[in-house]
């Protein structure tokens, strides 16, 4: 006769095994259910969005090659997952199906690598009122359940991390299984690429949302740029240049390379390049702790005066802008090759700034271009100070002559921007 303790121990082990088996069954069913939903969503996108656009792109104010580019890497994914779902329902074993079709999952890396391009292209296409109207009307179809095209396009990026999570949970409630480990390694490799771009994708979608919110057509540049990130957004009051100095409510956006502001009704009002900005204290003691000025290339007549609700908010904005300016300066220096970097820090006047990718991509405001033509393109004081600071701290950019004045040739900057 077995001791009571041994019986209880075996019974406990049996209950644990049974609990793990039940958990595995639920996880497998969850995989199948979510896969069905995923395939159905991809089919909805193909039928409601892709098919009409492919059939008659001119009707919606876009070009056939634009439509082809948008859907060229998601169409194979949709076709593949139809087969993947059938095999999954038949096998009821996620690990084996992933191993069998693992090579096909590599198409996700292609989709991810071109996602930026697709988002920017959609941003350009949305400038067509016909295309925008088509998107707005289609999302209201019963089949779309209120989802716009971008909501469908991001689903493949969200799907791979889901596989990784489900496989991890299956491993946790299973005995050692080589198939599970092999499948998990394959998915984790792809998920790594997805996770590296997930934040960037979310930022691009945010930029697209902001661009769509701007209601008039005065935006003189494409807000969607691979290097551009949204840092801070908020509502401030802008002091007008009129004699009455009225305060006007504005929505202000701080990006990694520019500051842009609109009216509260989302009409574009202006933007400035961070490389030509200085943060100043308010010149009046009244409301000094809640007000700051943005100087533009030393031209006091062009200063922008912003008022916050509280002193804490004012400090937050000043610190955010200053941090963005420092990072922009570091990027600027890092993009120069060694020869130009030495010449730049040596403050010689013939630096080939066109080799800095950041300057080629930057879309300078009309005010900055006008001022550079008038002043001969003098380099902004802030940039000179930060370059000296980087030189002192890092000792990587060699020249200690702090007395020489750094300058850009305005024609060089302008030509590089125009020739982009």
From TrEMBL:
Residues 393-420 are annotated as: Disordered. Residues 229-326 form the PH domain. Residues 408-420 have a biased composition (Polar residues). One of its GO terms (cellular component) is cytoplasm. Pfam families: PH, RhoGEF. Residues 23-197 form the DH domain. It comes from the Eukaryota. One of its GO terms (molecular function) is guanyl-nucleotide exchange factor activity. SMART domains: PH, RhoGEF. PANTHER family: FACIOGENITAL DYSPLASIA PROTEIN, LD03170P. This is DH domain-containing protein.
């Amino acid at each position: 006769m077995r001791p009571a303790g041994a019986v209880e121990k075996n019974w406990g082990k049996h209950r644990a095994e049974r609990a793990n088996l039940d958990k595995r069954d639920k996880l497998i069913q969850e995989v199948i259910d979510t896969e069905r939903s995923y395939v159905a969503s991809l089919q909805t996108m193909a039928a409601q969005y892709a098919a009409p656009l492919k059939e008659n792109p001119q009707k919606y104010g876009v070009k056939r090659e634009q439509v082809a580019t948008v859907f060229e890497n998601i169409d194979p994914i949709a076709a593949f997952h139809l087969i993947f779902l059938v095999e999954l329902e038949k096998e009821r074993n996620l690990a084996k199906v992933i191993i069998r079709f693992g090579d096909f999952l590599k198409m996700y890396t292609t989709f991810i690598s071109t996602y930026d391009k697709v988002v920017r292209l959609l941003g350009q296409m949305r400038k067509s009122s016909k295309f925008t109207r088509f998107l707005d009307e289609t999302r209201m179809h019963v089949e779309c359940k209120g989802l716009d095209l971008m909501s469908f396009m991001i689903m493949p990026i969200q799907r791979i991390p889901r596989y990784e999570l489900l496989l991890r949970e299956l491993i946790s409630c299973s005995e050692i299984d080589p198939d599970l480990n092999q499948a998990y390694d394959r998915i984790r490799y792809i998920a790594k690429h997805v996770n590296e771009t997930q934040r960037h994708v979310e930022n691009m979608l945010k930029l697209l949302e902001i661009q769509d919110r701007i209601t008039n057509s005065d935006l003189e540049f494409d807000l969607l740029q691979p290097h551009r990130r949204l840092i801070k957004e908020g509502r401030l009051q802008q002091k007008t240049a009129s004699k009455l100095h009225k305060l006007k409510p504005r929505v202000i956006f701080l990006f990694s390379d520019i500051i842009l502001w609109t009216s509260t009704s989302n009409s574009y009002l202006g933007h400035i390049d961070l490389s030509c900005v200085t943060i100043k204290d308010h010149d009046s003691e009244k409301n000094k702790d809640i007000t700051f000025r943005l100087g533009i290339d030393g031209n006091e007549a062009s200063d922008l005066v912003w008022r916050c609700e509280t002193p804490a908010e004012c400090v937050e904005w000043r610190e955010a802008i200053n941090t963005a300016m420092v990072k922009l300066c570091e990027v600027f220096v890092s993009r120069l090759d060694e020869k130009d970097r030495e010449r730049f820090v040596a403050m010689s006047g013939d630096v080939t700034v066109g080799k800095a990718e950041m300057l080629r991509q930057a879309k300078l405001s009309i005010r900055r271009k006008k001022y550079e033509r008038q002043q001969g393109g003098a380099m902004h004081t802030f940039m000179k100070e930060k370059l000296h600071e980087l030189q002192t701290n890092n000792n990587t950019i060699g020249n200690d002559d702090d007395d020489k004045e750094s300058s850009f040739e305005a024609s060089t900057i302008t030509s590089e921007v125009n020739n982009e």
